[in-house]
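LAB NOTEBOOK - FOLDING QUEUE
OPERATOR: T.R.
BATCH SIZE: 2
PURPOSE: Compare the predicted structure-token outputs for two unrelated chains run back to back under identical settings.
PRIORITY: normal
REVIEWER: second-year student, initials M.K.

ITEM 1
FIELD SEQUENCE / FIELD STRUCTURE:
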Amino acid sequence: MFPIARPSSPATEVSLPSLSDIEAAACVVNQTVPPTAQYRWGQLEQLLGVETWLKHENHGPVGAFKLRGGLTYFDALARQGRLPPAVVCATRGNHGQSVAWAARAHGVPCHIVVPRDNSREKNAAMRALGAHVIEHGRDFQEAREHAQQLAQSLPAHTVPSYHVELVTGVSTYWLELLRAAPQLTHLYVPIGLGSGACAAIAAKLALQHPARVIGVTSARASTYARSLAAGQVVAAEVSTQLADGLAVREADPAALRVLQAHLHDLVEVDDDAVANAMRALFQATHNVAEGAGAAALAGALQQASSLRHAHAVVGLALTGGNVDADVFARVLQAA
């Protein structure tokens, strides 16, 4: 078990969406994103040695799970009569595509700040959705700080990377998976800024499902590992070259409180483990996974022995397939 400092009081928790909230969000999300498939792939089950279900969030229209959250967030703004004249966000790519898609659907101009070394192909995808992409800073944290300054100067509404409405939208795919495979005992989910893991927790709590939620972080982006151990936000430098969706320098305080209270365990994976999982997913399913998109499998492979001992039934999501072609080629050639 990874050390997690549990909250001393329920008062330290933050609100999570209810079952009715998630089902209402599904009605919004499914207008754009039909329920994605989940399959048992034989070669993945051979690798892990247990029944394994893979949820294909890479099959959505932006190639990643994040769009669900953007759709729900903008729908809430529209219902409340609060659509802004413009929006700004910071991203490594998938959150930005989500915001760009939803902003375009609502006719709202969109400005997105990315780090200078961001994925060229993710940048191109955001521009193709009509976003004004600004490259600034050496990492996500510096991009986020610049986005906040830009929002004040324009002015524009800042779409955060973590928010209860984003969590509500993302929870819809976990609801789909838990209802499709109610026998699941272990859910592995990558942690970037936390919406995905908190969404898994929200869905299992809403369904009163007993599955354990195991977070997967990059060993080269350890803010959540350190923060969960300390019981407070601890910043950490980022050096991962492959799992850019996990490359966060500073944990979100609200997400941290949810994870402290409800995350069963945490696994740290290095870039070699992520690359191995990317190759395994391609070989077993012929689906392309970006680094963060393969992290759940990397975490499960790291705990395969204990999963077999527990006769576990594992749920994973291929959370995104937006990897630059040259990066993916290097990963495959390194096999």
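ITEM 2
FIELD SEQUENCE / FIELD STRUCTURE:
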Amino acid sequence: MDILSPQSQAGTRLAHVGRQPIFDSTGDVVAYELLFRGSTNAVTATRRDAYATSEVIVNTFTEFGIEEVVGDRLCFINLTRDFLVGDLALPFGPDNVVLEVLETVDVCDDVIAGVAALVEQGYSIALDDFVWGSGHERLLSFASYVKLDLLDLDRSHLDEVVAACRAYPGIQIVAEGLETGEHLALCNSYGFELRQGYVLSRPQVLTASSIAPSKLRRLELLSALCAAEPDLDRIISAVVGDPALTIRVLRASNSVAAGSTSRVSSVRQAVVLLGVTQIRRWAVLMVVEDITEAAESQLIEALTRARLCQILAPKFGAHPDAGFMAGLITAVAELLGVSAASMAHRLPLTADIEGALERGAGPLGQMLRVVGAYQRGDVGQAAAAYEADNLTRAVMEAMRWASQAVHSSHGPYCASS
């Protein structure tokens, strides 16, 4: 997604994530630590709890896209106890991710078992703000990185702490809190592999506009996902009933965390591609994040366009599923104040949908021009390409369907979506 200015459109929210580089001894950026930020101008994190971690994960992977935030570098993500012991599941795989055990976590037997399980799954572990005697030394055998805060660390014990870390050959030391030339000289004298701090680079806050999903729809999706035998149709119903959920499922399916480069042309394909387990994990984090509910009128407008395109698509020789997807993406793009082409570039769409959104190509492109003309009030242009009476009936049907979708207690289900 494009990184936008702090101004959001009505019915949308601003998504933020902080990003601070981690450098190697030669000055190259090798990783980014991802940080919770509550606003574009925030200098520090106002909270470091499960909410903060959930928001960082959801925003990074489903609003910006992990490749937009860190590229091919490592990303360090702070984890609270809830994630370490498995109360909240991680919705991404271990590739290019380092899990930071916050210094505030009480290292008990459950935490040790949870960290051991994460390492067994292939995740790399970092011990944040490491202090000998805090109990975190019990995790050294699992760690790939130890972060030492040179700004606050008692330097009289630095030799002992470094020696304890060096007893584990697989550990790299990350010196953080670097604010002076003296700190950098200390890094060099001890041979610390990685460095982070204001003297090298301050955190940058990335901000993007995103449509706010419906709280009710998220809870419905979570309920469907947690059933003893999840009903695929009910899951798809909850997803297609909320444009924000649809876009997030698409982005998640395109994320490196999903481990797939498959292209999709329908919500059903995206749901099947991700699988119930992965979607359940994202839904849990979305509930934890507790995003503000989107404006009802804007949800209806977005779904009306998607449904209208679904109805009209066969008349232009296109598949109705592809029509729904193309219409929905153009509507959401307008809500976000970005171009449909920029959204298409970040989603795993089939060539016909991508071509229609980026260049107005093919039958879907022609369909979108007709729908766009009608919604701009240029009925004459729309009618010239499609029968006026049939178009009016299709619009009325789409409006009824969209209104029912938003107001339904269980969400709509469109068999072809």
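REVIEWER COMMENT (ITEM 2): Residues 388-407 form the longest helix (20 residues).
FOLLOW-UP: none requested
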